[in-house]
Each structure stands twice: as C-alpha cells, then as structure tokens.
Structures
1.
Amino acid sequence: MSDQILVSAVVFSDEAGRILTVRKRGAELLMFPGGKPETGESSEQAAVREVAEELGVELDATCLRLIGEFTAPAANEPGQDVRATVFEHPWVRVDSPRAEIEQIEWVHPSAEAANLAPLLRETVFPRLRNRHRLGTVAVFTGSAFGNTPEFAQAAEVFARKVATAGISIVYGGGEVGLMGVVADSALAVGGTVHGVIPQSLVDGEIGHSGLTRLDVVADMHARKSRMAELADGFVALPGGAGTLEELFEVWTWQQLGLHTKPIALYDVGGFWQPFLAMVDQMVASGFISSRFRDSLIVSEEPDALLAELARWRPQAPKWDGSVDKD
C-alpha cells in the first residue's frame, strides 16, 4: 500500500456549473485549490488558509460544506496516494492566482480534459456529475427503533436511495435506533454521512464513531443550527419528541422566510397521518395558512420523495405583504 498524503481541497462552482481548478508552477495537471494541513490544523482551517495563500480569497469557514473524503494517485508524487477531504464553498471572485499557482481554469465536471489530476478525473468529478440537485439532506428520525421492523427496514431503504443518488446526509450523529440505521445504511453503499452531536451525548456514548465526519457542538441549539446550515432540504422519518421538535423548527423557519429549503415527511405505514390531521385542524382553525400545509412534501416512496424535493419551489414567507393571509 502506498503512502498517503493528506490534503484539504475546496470546490467552487460558477453559474455554468464549471469548477475552479489551479495549476502549480512546474506542474502539468490541474487540481483543486488547497493543500496539506499544518500541525494542529483541522481540515477546514487548512482549506481556508490554503485558499487565502493561493488565490488571495478569505473564505467563511462556516460556509464550507463537506462533499466527502476521496483517495486517488497523487498528481506530483509518483508512487503515493492523496487522501483529500473535499469541501465546497459558494462562488467567490478570483482575480489572479498567488503563491505557487501559475494558472487558474474553470472546468466543467463533464469535460473530457486530459490535464486533470487523478483526484479530479477519477473520483470527485464523477461524484459531482452524478450528484442530485440536493447536495445534502438533513434527516430527522428517532433514537429508538419503534415497535415494528417496518420502521428500520424503511429507514434502510431510504438511506440507501439517498446515498446512491449522490446526496450526502447530515443527521444528529447518533449510532442508536433509526438514526444509526440511516447512517450505517448510507455508509454501506459508499455514501457521505455527516453527524452533528452535542458534547453531552458524546459523553453518554451514543455518538457514531464510523461516520464520514462527526462535528461535536456545545448543545442541542448549536446542533440544529449547524444541521440547518449544511442541508439543502429536510426529511423527517418516524421518530419521537426530538424529531417533532426538529421538524417544527425548520418548518417554522420556512414559513417565516428564514430559509427556502424543502421539507418532506417519509410517511412509513401512515406514521405522519395523525400529525397531518393536527396540521389540518390548525389550518381549519385559522392558525396556519393552507399554503404552508401544502408546502410539506408527503410520500411513502423514497424515489417519489426525492423527486419532489428536487422539484420543490418556495412559498412567499408569512409576512410578505404581497400574499393574502388565509
């Protein structure tokens, strides 16, 4: 087995879907901006520092979103492999390269370019080409299994569908109950699973140690905020009070216009029908607009649910004066 070189890399996309690549002086192949972490640096810190040095751009570390970890032959070190933690960051303006960078070039992932480093050509670009419109979905579900095997079976099917569609999962970071089923099932088919868990639950030994990435945060509030930042959409599977709390919060934020991301209910065995009946009563009683009830995606089929998530378009927020309130 060859030695592995650890690096952090960052993907920037423009409106045409092209990816920013760089070529270092004396090198022939294009690669992502990034480089090797210094002693004591996290992957995110290394990515931010390297991009500043190479491109003169100061990134917001909170906007970095994990795509995954990838291994490929190193571009400039024969006989060695590079193991890259690859993030994506919203588009930034790059005027000219700095440091050892001689060239920058925007390349579409579907382009047949011969001058790409193996990391790009063999691993990351294929992932980007096959990626679903939703890059990352937040999954809310229970830390118990429920009283019927149907719940765990459905969670496994759903997680595998998500992972094989090229969608990353962010969830609460636990290894117990349906949470653990979701994580293990996605990982089993090569998916990317990002956990976010409070320190108190790590101390309680329910954190999942085998995830692509596990962020330990201060408390439950920080957990929900971080998951919401990372997600492009939300899916609630069967669960208990914690699942309801997470669901209600992101749904309320959606109504207020604090985010414009889709929310779906995976209605395993009609699990969410009592909840929907309660919401219908809220609508009938004049406490919720029917358009916010209609904004919820409900499906028993994972494929249909993912398709609806991709097609979803946001409603006007609650206090938008251009919309009649009902």
Note: Residues 321-326 have pLDDT under 50 and may be disordered.
2.
Amino acid sequence: PMSTDGPGSSSFPVLVGARDALIQAGRVVRSVNGRDVLVLHHQGSLHALDLHCYRE
C-alpha cells in the first residue's frame, strides 16, 4: 500500500499490487485517483512517487 499526499487531498492507503509482485518487478507505474504513480523497490523498501511535475 501507499498513501497519497497533495494539495486538497487526504492521506489514505491505496492498494497498488501484491508486495511480492512489486518487489519482483522492481518498478511499476500505477494509476491512483487519476494520477500516474511510480512504485519502486530500492534497498528493501517500497517507495511511491507522483509522476506529475509541479514546477512551472
């Protein structure tokens, strides 16, 4: 699971796949509430990053 944080959103867990499958894949992109999110396995931990660039 991962949580989403951002302007105007609440933080809550979201199931993006089975832990073992995410670890085996190394990295995946999933859609979470209409946003593309990169989920990656690095040094024993799972991390999630919003793929949207907020800089203008």
Note: Residues 11 and 51 are 17 Å apart (CA to CA).
